[in-house]
Amino acid sequence: MAYKTEHITQQLRAAREAQKMSQRELSARSGLTQSHISQIERGTMEPGLGSLVDVARALDLEIVLAPKKLMPAIRNILDSASASSDVLTSDQRKLVGRLERWFAQHRGGFGSASEADTFKDSLALLRHLPLSAEEMDTFNEATARLDRSQADPPSRQELSRIAHAVRHLRNAAVHRDRDDAVPRSAYALDEEDDNA
Fold first, then answer.
1. Is the per-residue pLDDT at 151 higher than 70?
2. Is the dihedral of CA 27, 61, 85, 79 positive or negative?
3. Contact (Cβ atoms closer than 8 angstroms) between residue 100 and residue 107
4. pLDDT, tens digit (0-9, with 9 covering 90-100), for 31-50
5. Nearest-CA neighbor of 109 among 151, 168, 145, 157?
6. What 3 state SS string does the chain have?
């Protein structure tokens, strides 16, 4: 097997085994024969792109092309997401849930659909990324602003400030160093206007 696909096929096998799925079950889900899957996993057959996509999707995975410069952030997100299920506090889960429910009711209050989508996407990421105590304080403050405005909907300017705070939290959590010896990446997930 070519070195280029070896790590991908190893990840697919690990995903299948983690889901306690047999090759036969994977065969039924993917449409590939069990012997084809076995050959791919053993490295005796170089899988075609279509086969890789079929197997990945049968395992509830996606194969995507991403810009190389974003790989540190993507790896950080994937590492955080896989490790965060036991790490997130119930307070963080509650805050994200409250903001998601609030957002569902007040989506139209944002200045643009793009700003609303970014806010929603930021919340989705924050559901999986553990926050520090300081970041939780900022998150609590943003949520408290919304609580104070229950009687009167917040102005677009206030929504923009809250959205900026949530984006900042998301970026901080995504770019947080896992090891102090590793320098932080010099990029953001989206453009932010700090003068807003």
1. no
2. positive
3. no
4. 999 999 999 998 888 888 89
5. 157
6. CCHHHHHHHHHHHHHHHHCCCCHHHHHHHHCCCHHHHHHHHHCCCCCCHHHHHHHHHHCCCCCCCCCHHHHHHHHHHHHHHHHHCCCCCHHHHHHHHHHHHHHHHHHHHCCCHHHHHHHHHHHHHHCCCCCCHHHHHHHHHHHHHHHHCCCCCCCHHHHHHHHHHHHHHHHHHHHCCCCCCCCCCCCCCCCCCCCC
Condensed to tens digits (0 to 9), the pLDDT of residues 48-90 reads 889 999 999 998 888 888 898 988 888 877 776 665 444 567 7
Residue with structure tokens 């929504």? 159
Domain boundaries, the chain: 3-58, 68-175
Output the CA torsion sign for 27, 28, 32, 34: positive
Q: Which residues contact 51 (CB under 8 A, 6 or more apart)?
A: 32, 36, 40
3-58 CATH fold: 434 Repressor (Amino-terminal Domain) (1.10.260)
